[in-house]
Design brief:
Blueprint (H helix, E strand, L loop, with lengths): L1 H72 L9 H10 L3 E8 L4 E4 L13 H9 L3 E8 L5 E10 L5 E10 H11 L5 E4 L5 E5 L3 H4 L6 E5 L6 E5 L5 H78 L3 H28 L7 E4 H18 L2 E6 L6 E4 L1 H17 L5 E9 L3 E8 L6 H4 L17 H11 L3 E7 L3 E9 L5
Parallel strand pairs: 11-13
Antiparallel strand pairs: 1-2, 1-5, 3-4, 4-5, 6-7, 6-9, 8-9, 10-12, 13-14, 14-16, 15-16
Helix pairs in contact: 1-6, 6-7, 8-9, 9-11
């Protein structure tokens, strides 16, 4: 009992607990990775949206700036004449904090407003860079105008025919305009706008401690037209969703593994029941065999005396009517002897001396007897024997008895004639004898009982014939299988292990 309990506990651990723990760990890990990937992709999407919007904003500003440059290039006398144009352009573009015309040294010549205050554009790095490179340059930082607007500078050179710098135009782009759009697009996202020195220029929904924490929790995307980048914080995982998913995954694996455990348990119980049934049958057969053997010895002793006395009486009383009775008595005594012989075989199946025998020879020796029995019942005998020898280990007479018993049953099942086929073949490791008839067949419910001692469907049968055949074949290391269908016939397959010729 303790062994079974330990085995059940070990089985439960192997089939249920370990797969549940390992499977849940792997699947939950995969779920967390997928969840992390989704959050990373979402952060990338947010960053790309804002980077794209910044690029669009700068591109449109550069396009407007280039139009002003074309106008400025046509004015060679006094660039201050452009001031009305700068004012009109500023009024039509609320995205700008101001538009200014600078001389080649960076001093203001004209502007769309007076909101620069004390801010001296000449000192700005990007203005100095335009002077040196004669290229369109964008500021790397923001500053506040007098009206409180936070702006970023975008400067472009005006060059003469000799490609010398003659003046500059500066757009001050309103940061708050872009900030408002960013807030509308992703109101709940934590994001930062960083300059090239990784300084925070703009902060959206991000506490200071988040901005300074592990950068592995952030996604950074550069802005193509600015020396800046958009940094978006990867959203925190939803603990409730993770717990729910983990419990669901664990529950499903636990449920399925329990089903697997019950199935394995059922198969083991079924196997144990089959083994137990086989052992019980073997015990019963052994008990019946012991009883049969002892009974057979007790019967044979007085039977020998009876047979001798009957023989003496038949010599004394030789009238026709007396001889008829003596014949009947002798026949019944012979029948009793047959039953007793089967009892002895049933009781002592291993009390035999086995030799290497050729199945071909055994069947050829039986052929005259089988043919005679078949002819009496108007049955056609078809015997197929291969030319090569098939050697097995057996007792020759007992092997003949097995074949005769089975063919006798086949002949008795065909009252109106038919075909009796005996096919001998050599397989890989076994010799195979197939005995087939087209008699009345055996009912399905009787197939499982035909090897039970004393079970018979015949009025005069003992129910020991097939039991003896099976016992003998098993003692030879072989086996017997019977398949049948009512009204069609029966197929008996005997397989015996091959041995080398001695």
């Amino acid at each position: 009992m303790k062994y079974k309990q330990k085995r059940n506990i070990l089985l439960y651990m192997m089939i249920v607990l370990l797969p549940t723990i390992i499977g849940s760990f792997l699947l939950i890990k995969e779920e967390l990775n997928e969840n992390q990937q989704i959050r990373v992709e979402e952060a990338n999407w947010v960053a790309s949206i804002h980077a794209s919007h910044w690029n669009q904003f700068v591109n449109e500003s550069v396009t407007t700036l280039e139009m002003l440059l074309l106008t400025a290039s046509s004015i060679v006398d006094d660039y201050r004449q452009m001031e009305p144009l700068l004012i009109r352009t500023h009024r039509t573009e609320p995205r700008y904090g101001g538009i200014y015309l600078l001389d080649k040294d960076g001093s203001i010549l004209a502007g769309s407003n007076q909101e620069l205050g004390k801010n001296d554009l000449k000192k700005e790095d990007y203005i100095q860079e335009v002077i040196q490179t004669k290229d369109v340059i964008i500021s790397d930082h923001t500053f506040f105008m007098n009206n409180g607007q936070n702006v970023i500078g975008l400067a472009a050179p005006i060059v003469d025919e000799k490609k010398d710098l003659s003046a500059m135009i500066v757009f001050l782009l309103r940061v708050d305009y872009v900030e408002n759009i960013m807030k509308v697009l992703t109101p709940d996202s934590e994001l930062l706008v960083m300059n090239s020195q990784q300084e925070v220029l703009m902060n959206f929904n991000t506490p200071k401690e988040h901005a300074e924490n592990d950068h592995r929790q952030w996604i950074s995307t550069p802005i193509d037209r600015l020396p800046w980048s958009i940094r978006v914080k990867i959203a925190d995982a939803d603990v409730k969703d993770i717990v729910y998913s983990s419990l669901l995954i664990t529950g499903i694996i636990f449920f399925l593994s329990n089903i697997a455990f019950l199935f394995v348990k059922y198969m083991l119980l079924k196997r144990e029941a089959a083994i137990e049934k086989k052992e019980n049958e073997a015990q019963k057969l052994e008990l019946v065999g012991s009883l049969a053997a002892s009974t057979a010895h007790e019967i044979r002793n007085p039977l020998t005396g009876i047979k001798g006395l009957i023989q003496l009486l038949s010599e004394k009383y030789n009238s026709e009517s007396d001889q008829l009775y003596f014949n009947v008595i002798n026949q019944e005594i012979s029948r009793i002897n047959e039953i007793v012989s089967e009892f002895l075989i049933l009781g002592k199946p291993t009390a035999q001396k086995m030799n290497t025998e050729n199945l071909n020879v055994i069947l050829k020796e039986l052929h005259p007897i089988l043919s005679s029995e078949a002819n009496l019942k108007n049955i056609k005998l078809i015997c197929s024997v291969p030319p090569e020898p098939i050697f097995i280990k057996c007792t020759k007479d007992q092997m003949k008895q097995v074949i005769l018993n089975i063919t006798k049953n086949a002949v008795e099942s065909m009252d109106n004639g038919g075909n009796l086929t005996i096919h001998l073949a050599k397989k890989k490791q076994v010799g195979e004898i197939i005995i087939q008839d087209n008699g009345v067949g055996i009912p399905k419910e009787a197939i499982e009982k035909i090897f039970t001692p004393f079970y018979t469907s015949k009025d005069t049968g003992t129910g020991l014939g097939l039991v003896v055949c099976k016992r003998l074949l098993e003692s030879f290391g072989g086996q017997i299988d019977v398949s049948s269908e009512e009204g069609i016939g029966t197929i008996v397959k005997i397989t015996l292990p091959l041995v080398k010729e001695k």
